[in-house]
Write a structure and sequence with these properties.
Blueprint lengths: L17 E3 L4 E3 L5 H18 L17 H16 L13 H17 L5 H11 L15 H8 L1 H4 L3 E4 L25 H7 L18 H6 L1 H8 L9 E4 L9 H8 L9 H4 L7
Antiparallel strand pairs: 1-2, 3-4
């Protein structure tokens, strides 16, 4: 994100971002969305750490050499970020559409992980995954926009979804999060995984009663072997677990809450949003 920040054209040489006076501070950046959003994000981080918030009533935005349409777009962007914040955090509680779209795509990730019996999941497994584990797939250069956005969510959701092993037939031994919620591919090199097989499932090292872990794996990873041997497989079907819900099932609300940027609570929200008072 830091790489996306661009300096104001008159302060680029000195890499100047701010000037501090007795009672005021002036901040400079390029008039584009990425730089502006990044600057506002730093305001929020400062408020969370210090408890001090910018007084918007006493703040102003100045533009130089910027077209009127671009000015309006940037100001609306800043205002909309404030609107799409829960009431208890000083906003109006509206949903941000871009984030809401990510949540909808997150539901697709969940459907894939739990091997949902739907036409889209079956098509994705056959045409897009082609037998590979979802967490192992890299973003192709020529894929559709929707699939690209789904894969972009992997870094965000990979630690939120884990597999509760039943018979182990649908759980990747190396790429799914399962034993003690570990993902073995993060602890073992790709070259080592290639020795035993990238597509190996948990059930392939289980004979129905005991673990049949290869000696080469036992010698190289004794700690992981202990973790694996503490697990017992059953005749039940493997199932995905959503960590953000008590019942382990995906919900739109929990995913949206997870993806949004949190702000400190404001003390006045109960007064403004009281049931008998019109804001």
């Amino acid at each position: 994100m830091q790489e996306k920040f661009k300096y104001h054209s008159k302060s680029r040489v000195m890499q100047l971002t701010h000037l501090i006076f007795v009672d005021d501070i002036m901040l400079f950046c390029k008039a584009d969305e990425e730089s502006t959003v990044l600057m506002m994000q730093k305001f929020k981080e400062f408020a969370q750490v210090s408890g001090l918030e910018v007084n918007r009533m006493k703040s102003q935005v100045f533009f130089s050499g910027v077209r009127e349409g671009q000015k309006v777009a940037l100001i609306q962007k800043l205002a909309w970020d404030d609107v799409c914040v829960p009431r208890k955090e000083g906003g109006l509680g509206m949903k941000q559409l871009l984030r809401w779209n990510k949540v909808a795509l997150g539901k697709l990730v969940w459907n894939i992980c739990q091997h949902q019996e739907s036409l889209w999941v079956k098509w994705a497994q056959a045409a897009l995954l082609r037998g590979e584990n979802f967490w192992k797939v890299k973003i192709p250069t020529d894929c559709a926009w929707t699939w690209r956005q789904v894969l972009k969510l992997c870094p965000l959701l990979k630690n939120i979804i884990w597999m509760q092993v039943g018979d182990g037939r649908q759980v990747s031994l190396f790429y799914d999060s399962w034993a003690c919620e570990l993902r073995f591919c993060e602890l073992i090199s790709k070259d080592e995984i290639a020795v035993w097989g990238h597509d190996l499932t948990v059930s392939e090292w289980w004979d129905g009663l005991n673990w049949t872990i290869p000696d080469s794996f036992v010698r190289r990873h004794p700690m992981l072997v202990q973790i694996i041997r503490c697990q017992k497989l059953s005749q039940q079907v493997d199932k995905a677990v959503w960590k953000l819900a008590k019942n382990g099932l995906f919900t739109i609300s929990s995913c949206y809450e997870f993806l949004r940027v949190k702000r400190p609570k404001v003390e006045w929200h109960q007064i403004v949003w009281a049931g008998c008072i019109v804001p």
